[in-house]
């Protein structure tokens, strides 16, 4: 239990603007977190990254961008399950979708509101607490779930190609709709963590489309049927939402 506490409370900020690092560090330390800062992705990679409970990554940095660093983190079983929040001056839905597809948990636009930053950090860590088994030893998790450098997510007999937008079950392609694909990839990127219907609508549906909460239930019912024996691992947490319960 002590290990979980340390990882949740320790935050790494990676931003090439020293002033922003200092402001974020000051405000988050006042909230009770232990905060380290570095000014490049390359510096971050020199640290024992598995010891952190959250990464705040600037997108536009020197030679290696925040997106590239995030891909490295998600490809390593030791850091795969540590949540990521992107902090960036980039706007536009394409950048938001790109960050979320990499596996980010949230996205904050510059100029920063410290009130918003604190709220989003708390919200992400609260979601992590709903699925605290994701903080167990990374060795077994890495064997069950792999996010490959060529942008494939594999969990036992399930495989998702994030570029080709295909899903296979035991090497047989499944005919999934766009929303079913988005839901499944999101669940597999964030196993053992509970998300409300509102969370799933935010991260898995286009922002300019009006949909009802009931739409989430319908799509999850269809997805459970399509993924065969893995359908039972999409759990309903009454009063909270849904999660993909990984059986390691």
Explain what this protein looks like in three dimensions.
The longest helix is centred in the middle third of the chain and has 17 residues, at 114-130. The protein starts with a helix and ends with a strand. Helix 8 (178-189) packs across helix 10 (213-226) and helix 9 packs across helix 10. The model is unreliable at 1-8 and 131-143 (pLDDT under 50). The strands form three sheets. It has a five-stranded parallel beta sheet with strand order 2-1-3-4-5, with helices on both faces. It has a five-stranded antiparallel beta sheet with strand order 6-7-8-9-10. Strands 11-12 form a two-stranded antiparallel ribbon. The chain contains ten helices and twelve strands. It has 248 residues and is an alpha/beta fold. Strand 7 and strand 8 (158-161) form a beta hairpin. The relative contact order is 0.11. It is globular and about 50 Å long. The chain is 42% helix and 20% strand.
Task: Give a short overview.
This protein is α/β, with parallel strands linked by helices. The chain is built from ten helices and twelve strands.
Secondary-structure topology with pairs:
Layout: H1 2-9, E1 10-14, H2 18-30, E2 34-38, H3 41-44, E3 54-58, H4 66-75, E4 84-88, H5 93-102, E5 106-109, H6 114-130, H7 138-144, E6 145-147, E7 152-155, E8 158-161, E9 166-169, E10 172-174, H8 178-189, H9 197-204, H10 213-226, E11 234-237, E12 241-244
């Amino acid at each position: 239990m002590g290990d979980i506490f340390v990882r949740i409370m320790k935050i790494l900020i990676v931003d090439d603007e020293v002033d922003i690092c200092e402001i974020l560090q000051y405000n988050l330390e006042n909230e009770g977190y232990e905060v380290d800062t570095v000014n490049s992705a390359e510096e971050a990679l020199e640290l024992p990254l598995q010891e952190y409970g959250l990464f705040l990554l600037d997108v536009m940095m020197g030679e290696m961008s925040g997106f590239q660093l995030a891909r490295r983190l998600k490809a390593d079983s030791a850091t795969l399950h540590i949540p990521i929040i992107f902090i960036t001056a980039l706007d536009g839905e394409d950048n938001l979708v790109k960050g979320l597809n990499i596996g980010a948990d949230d996205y904050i636009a510059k100029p920063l509101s410290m009130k918003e930053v604190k709220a989003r950090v708390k919200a992400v860590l609260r979601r992590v607490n709903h699925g605290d088994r994701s903080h167990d030893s990374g060795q077994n998790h890495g064997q069950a779930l792999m996010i490959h450098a060529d942008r494939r997510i594999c969990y036992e007999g399930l495989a998702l190609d994030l570029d080709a937008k295909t899903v296979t079950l035991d090497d047989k392609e499944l005919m999934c709709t766009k929303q079913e694909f988005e839901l499944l990839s999101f669940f597999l990127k964030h196993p053992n963590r509970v998300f409300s219907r509102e969370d799933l609508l935010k991260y898995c549906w286009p922002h300019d489309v009006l949909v009802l909460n009931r739409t989430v239930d319908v799509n999850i019912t269809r997805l459970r049927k399509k993924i065969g024996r893995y359908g039972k691992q999409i759990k309903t947490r009454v009063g909270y939402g849904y999660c993909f319960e990984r059986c390691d």
